[in-house]
Amino acid sequence: MGNPTSRRDGRMLGRGALQMSALARRSVGSLGVLTSRRLTTSASPPKKDTLRNLAARQSLAGQVVLVRADLNLPMTKSGPVEITDATRLTEALPTLRLLMDAGAKVVCCSHLGRPKKAKDEAARARLSLAPVAARMSAELGVAVPAVGDCIGPSVTEAVAGLADGGVLLLENTRYYKEEEKNEPGFAQAIVASCGASVFVNDAFGAAHRAHASTAGVVPHVQHAVAGLLLEKELDFLYGAVAAAERPFAAVIGGSKVSSKIGVIESLLGKVDTLVIGGGMAFTFLKAKGLEVGDSLVEDEQLELAARLETLAKSKGVELILPTDVVAADAFAADAKVATVGADAIPKGYLGVDNGPETTARITATIARCKTVIWNGPMGVFEMAPFAHGTVAVAESLAAATDKGCVSIVGGGDSVAAVNAAGLAPRMSHISTGGGASLELLEGKVLPGVAALDDAP
Ligand code: ATP
Hints:
Low-confidence stretches: 1-42
Bound molecules: adenosine-5'-triphosphate
Shape: globular
Helix content: 40-55%
Strand order of the largest sheet: 8-7-6-12-13-14
Largest sheet: 6 strands, parallel
Structural class: alpha/beta
Number of helices: 19
Mean pLDDT: 88
Strand content: 5-15%
């Protein structure tokens, strides 16, 4: 865990790792340029080296391979800690199996949640990856030890005891604030602690962030390649953008307005229809001057939301915002609810789902589209009474896909909702990355991809 003692270890290891950096074969400098470059929508996937190619070129037997997976699995927020959707883990398994079969010593790492936002030590402790290691053991059929840190002597010891073909899981990299700051000493320490010579990035869901474990580690290994999942995601999503058939709609929901607003702006230049639902819709409704009661609103985004609505008009994009909502008098499944017009949310109530009129408009739009990307639920779908709008989107998207629409679902919660409804097999592509898939569709270069070796 990221306590002061282990941070001290990090500095020690950072110094030790400086020797390693002298061996590093790559220069650190190019990322800044790469991250700010933009591709056009017709871009083909970046030509990066892949694990498949590397494994075909050379033996990985006995080599320590650091795998950055995206094991940021949705978990219960209270009560016993349980994984509520294991899609990202399941999708990470092919890369792990390939490496195990190749006889590599597999050191897996990931972040989980946002420890820096945890309100207390107990909330922070819920973000341990130990339960994920247990699930990984069950899936792979081998014991996967959970190391209690991601740098330091405990990691070095655990790797020393790892057999060829074995796997271990490091602790949540975001327990260290240095992870998100991409601090070079911390990145060095991750590599030096486990002694990896090869880095495999398979964390598509985190590839849009230049963090220590997604990009910072690259200069300190001999090979940095894309894992099977990362490769699959890039192939599909680049293909979808290049060949997006119209009508093309984006359905954006969830709670994080500030993290998705930039993407919304850029999607306005690509789609025919933009649907905004879920918690983020209320910032847009308030920006239109509507009374939104106690609904989720990010006041600092109001101006931008108003500007985006004007931009949608000027670009001729149909913008669908809720016209009716399900409002509850508390954030609880047994709250008193009322279905009201979006301009008539009573004081003391908050919007928790799209109303039936809004849902009907959205599903009708999906039914006539040839390409739909969906990120973020339409309401507080974890509570059954507020899941109708989200389930309706999932069902209409599955039905549209049956008729030839290309459907792409991204984002932990939207994917969980699709899985819960048993509809995942009917979608064209379930992406393990929410923000990452949106940024890629937006045309941005993902720093976690840009940092990897170019294809030989
Ligand atoms: P990503 O993986 O990219 O973060 P996501 O699909 O997980 O995307 P989020 O932005 O994380 O989407 O938002 C999901 C959360 O939003 C859910 O926990 C859901 O309960 C919450 N949410 C949806 N609608 C509302 C609402 N009206 N009020 C409050 N919370 C809401």
